[in-house]
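General statements about sequence and structure are easier to judge against a single worked case. In the encoding step, the backbone of a single protein was reduced to a row of integers, each denoting a local shape. The record that follows shows the chain in one-letter code together with its fold in token form.
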Amino acid sequence: MLDRTLLRFLLMGAANTALGLSVIFGLQLFFSPVVANWMAFVLLVPVTFMAHRNWSFRDGGGLVRSFVRYLPVVALGYAVNRVVLEHSLTQAIEAHLAQGLAIAAYVTVTYLLLRLFVFLRPRDDSSGG
């Protein structure tokens, strides 16, 4: 059985992914898949930070401290995402499927590092939040 944090992360991740793919696919009308992926990443970092901090991990630590730790984690996740995307495209994998593979790699890396390095102070949810 999945623990609650992982389940919330996956649910929020699905919502973030839907939003991200919408932005990526819209941008792909004007830019290459790699550029579209980068632009969507930059635009959505603050959104995903707040969503994961407040709902997925329910972090009670300092906002600035968490964000400072969040940035290198998502940068590493993005680097992994980019390597998978570019490799997939060089292997003639269709662009939409390549984006999906890149997202799966990003999710795996970021979940583990967010849980172990960024969101370390769960807030007290005994008030029903």
